[in-house]
Design goal:
The structure is a homodimer of 584-residue chains.
Chain A (H helix, E strand, L loop, with lengths): L5 E6 L4 E6 L9 H12 L13 E4 L14 E6 L6 E6 L3 H7 L2 E7 L10 E6 L2 E6 L9 H12 L6 E4 L2 H4 L7 E3 L8 E3 L4 H7 L2 E6 L12 H18 L1 H6 L5 H6 L22 H11 L2 E4 L10 E5 L5 E4 L3 H7 L8 H14 L3 H13 L8 H13 L2 H6 L2 H8 L7 E2 L2 E2 L9 H9 L26 H16 L15 H12 L5 H22 L8 H5 L13 H7 L15
Parallel strand pairs in A: 1-6, 7-12
Antiparallel strand pairs in A: 1-2, 3-4, 3-6, 4-5, 7-8, 9-10, 9-12, 10-11, 13-14, 14-15, 16-17
């Protein structure tokens, strides 16, 4: 008999675990769509993010654990301590695959235990169920790398067991704390980075979650042959399209974003970085990996056929960090006036280990330099600055609360953030479509929920024309086709891949959805998030004032997508002229 | 010829001063009503509070400088760095009287100068105009007391010159920084305390504003005899009604608020404080003043006939602080488990001198104790904690950002604040009407804009019934009759005093307003503030979750005024059944 998909509830207040079958109405939603659905159904939108009534939700995507390429990303969500709104953040590693194969639709973690500041728990998830165990003293106050290694050894059954941990930042319930996840080698270089989910996990006093399917795989398909067939055809396309990413990682973007004038330089005060951008490119990362014995073309989760990730080694060939991405490179690099990939890699490691979002932290670092807390380009100063988080000093707490709070505490108004969350490494004055996503996104300053990369849709990134229609499309497809299936962002969104999403869902679930249906599911997901956010008091549109009034060299452009256009992005009764025609 | 009322504009970007006549449409609005009017007409509600497009507005009330009793309070406003919304904060001292007599309707300070972090300016306001002067090194980094003494001597002409200053907190642009104003003796014991206006003044790089009318008085009245007559009759009533306040100051409230179960005890975790409340009462303050040579029955501004203020002396009779109020007493007292008025007075002085709101700071202190940063009741620990602000350490910066930011940075969710501003010393679970004001107020957690003191309107403070109607009345009268005239809160609001407001306005301005008109002006003021706040993204209603879900001993009550009632407070088409009948 086919194993039912199940939902676990872990109540940290009374330390109980219960399990229930997945309601039929959840069948075709997963990941991000499921998270916002549960949040709307079960939560008071005005609850405090680190209070007893927030819920930390781990939700598998529709394809998690299947043979579809690039479908292993796991979604984690809650009411965000950064934005106060609906939040989903997804990450690689084997977690999604394992949970999918155990047929776990979601783990909903509720309540707050009444224990001391230094008391924590470990959750162990296996096919036998979920156990709540007291966390051993050895991992309290420790970073994510060490915690995960310890927990994998102590609580894992197989060598593939995955571990989700919080570092010192999550223990402090700092608002930019992330959840770090192990990759396939057991390093916590994968992050559910954005929105402060580590603070929610820390508030529930969970230091680590160890997940081990012990090799079990209960995945079934309505039409296995059709699923396998579509997977195979898609893999070939994605593999080919992802060649640049495979070779140079996401840092391949340094050059085009610099060229378009959207690279954050010295706290978003210039858009290009003369010749120095060449020292922090993906090509340079690749060269160093070849020279030193780091890795490029590294897969972040089972079944990934793009393999855009990397492992960075130092001059002696020793591990420095894993998964050094464009955002982190640009924001600790040009944004902090630092052109040294070794220093940038060490900063990335510190973020992953202390357990903070490297985007919010690096934007905070740029502000710290502008405020004179660190000198521009001071590498040692920057690394010492980050180490404050590990020591849990007052300064470290402020840093770990991210760019918005850092800017507030240090009296700075030039803070590139929306709705409390730092924007990514695309200055909205040079990448106006992405700027419109930052401004309108249900997630705050997030580039993954609708990133109008230069050239996308054939639209000039400096033009304000047609951006809004493109952005609505990107946001809708990201919300469901990507973030609710477990697919990696790099599978799409693009019309080329949309038919595969439809084919795969139908083959797995025995449905007969159309492309229109999938688009509509994306809109429904956005509507759910907007509903939650409004009830939580999160504004619909938010733009950092300095990006509206301060022209960005060298184009001397401001962010000026019209308010009317931006309001229409989420006014779903309004149809953009370009909505149906944009070829992106 | 009658001297025209004028509006000054000080542009700090290009260091210019201009003057313009007051538009006719501003004639019958002053103080708070004028501030929100100017904000709506001239400002982008989404501007950054410490960016170039916020404006710091000093606006005289309709009665400032006249012979009406208790009419000397000066209104200062801006977009609040704490709430992000419309903000007016008023204070005593001679400033209102001086500006009124110089016929200055408002001083609007705009722009941001491009100068170094440690460069500041001093403004000098005299009948000759406004000068922008470089601030001397002697006052940079100094507290408000010393700064004001220095500036009064250097820039004042007469001994009555008043000085507005920021302390270290305002220099840091910390979000709970206040503006400190001199009292009639030249001590900066008067504060425009709430909402972070000191950060706005600091962002504009103004360390002090020296105001000296050089004895000039250009006040005129349409009907001088009627004005004098009404003033005299009112003074007799107010004088009699204010006897308790005169003798014991606002701390006379410690006993009734404790008795009703609304006193904040150990970070709002209990509502009464066994027998210890007796050690921090107004009666005890009075006794100490008599014993040591402090003062009670001290007037905060010229023409005050209540004289509820005080000067606190130490055991040797030396000055400790001035104007030690109920809020500060309760929030540094029972809220921090400290029953020593000497320590509380020293903490008040530190707040006034470093230039932070003593309410937001003392609520932060209670949270710090709950978080284990200081031990409960640790007096030395608390004083050292406050001294961090003077040293501008990272911890000091966080404290000076107020309770909401302090709670966020230290991972605490039990934070008694609404819309970013700490609530005052009436726990909303024991004083539900005041709780409804905190939740709905355009100002965030503010007790002065609609305080349903126990017994007001004959309503049980623990009942949810009829609170909303009472609160709308109180909010409307406070907004115009009190905060827009320069009247002290203790003149009203009450129907007994309303006819006087009408009489005085008509006698001064030659109008024929009715009581209904005055009420309507209050509603219009609220509407203007709501308009600005909504456009700025400030939620209409905000309630700290713990006060909704955590029963407060000894009544074990939660804050549960219905959402419907609270929404109706600002739904002016809705008429509360009790609106016309409440006798308060």
């Amino acid at each position: 008999m086919e194993k039912m998909e199940k939902i676990y509830r872990v109540n940290m207040t009374d330390q109980t675990v219960s399990v229930e079958p997945t309601p039929e109405c959840y069948r075709l939603i997963g990941g991000r769509a499921l998270i916002t659905q549960i949040m709307n159904e079960e939560m008071d939108p005005q609850c405090h993010p680190i209070g007893p009534n927030n819920k930390l939700i781990i939700a598998t995507g529709l394809f998690n654990g299947t043979t579809a390429p690039c479908s292993g990303r796991i979604s984690i969500g809650a009411k965000s301590p950064l934005t106060n709104g609906s939040k989903e953040s997804n990450a690689g590693g084997p977690t999604g695959t394992m949970l999918g194969r155990m047929k776990i639709k979601a783990i909903i973690i509720e309540g707050l235990p009444k224990v001391g500041e230094d008391d924590f728990f470990v959750l162990r998830v296996t096919p036998a169920g979920i156990e709540i165990l007291p966390a051993p003293q050895e991992i309290i106050g420790k970073g994510c790398y060490e915690t995960a290694r310890y927990c994998k050894k102590k609580y894992g059954y197989s060598h593939t067991a995955s571990v989700l941990t919080i570092g010192q930042a999550g223990e402090m319930r700092a608002t930019a704390a992330c959840i770090s996840l192990t990759n396939m080698e057991g390093d916590t270089s994968r992050q559910a980075g954005r929105g402060g989910l580590g603070a929610v996990m820390g508030s529930k006093k969970i230091k680590a979650i160890v997940i081990d399917n012990r090799g079990e795989n209960h995945i079934t398909y309505a039409d296995p042959k059709a699923y396998r067939d579509a997977s195979y055809r898609l893999a070939k396309i994605v593999n080919k399209a992802g060649k640049g990413l495979n070779a140079y990682g996401t840092a391949v973007l340094v050059t085009p974003i610099n060229n378009v004038g959207g690279l954050p330089v010295r706290n978003f005060s210039e858009g290009t970085w003369d010749d120095r951008f060449k020292k922090i490119t993906g090509q340079e990362l690749h060269r160093l990996a070849d020279e030193r014995g780091g890795q490029w073309g590294h897969s972040c989760h089972p079944g990934c056929c793009i393999a855009c990730s990397n492992v960075v080694a130092d001059k002696d060939g020793e591990y420095v960090t894993g998964s050094l991405e464009f955002e982190t490179v640009a924001l600790f690099g040009s944004n902090c006036d630092i052109d040294d990939l070794d220093c940038i890699a060490r900063c990335d490691y510190k973020c992953d280990d202390y357990g903070v979002d490297s985007i919010d932290t690096s934007v905070a670092a740029g502000i710290a330099m502008e405020a004179g807390v660190i000198e521009w380009g001071d590498k040692e100063g920057l690394e010492a600055f980050l180490d404050e988080m590990g020591k849990k000093t007052p300064l470290g707490r402020v840093i770990a609360c991210g760019a918005a709070t850092f800017g507030k505490v240090f009296g700075q108004w030039r803070v590139s953030q929306t709705k409390g969350q730092a924007t990514a490494a695309y200055d909205p004055r040079g990448c106006k479509g992405t700027g419109a996503t930052y401004a309108t996104s249900t997630m705050g300053g997030d580039h993954t929920v609708g990133n109008a990369l230069p050239g996308r849709g054939g639209i000039d990134p400096h033009s304000t024309e047609k951006q809004a229609g493109l952005i609505r499309n990107l946001q809708a497809y990201s919300a469901y086709m990507i973030d609710s299936t477990g697919w990696c962002l790099f599978v799409g969104p693009s019309f080329t891949k949309l038919p595969f999403a439809v084919e795969l869902i139908n083959a797995k679930y025995g449905t007969s959805l159309t492309e229109k249906d999938v688009y509509k599911m994306g809109i429904e997901t956005l509507k759910n998030e907007i509903k939650f956010n409004r009830a939580a008091g999160v504004p619909d549109i938010d733009i950092p004032e300095f990006e509206k009034v301060e022209p960005l060299p060298p184009h001397n452009d401001v962010f000026n997508v019209s308010m009317e256009d931006m309001k229409n992005i989420h006014n779903f009764d309004y149809e953009f002229p370009e909505e149906k025609t944009t070829d992106w």
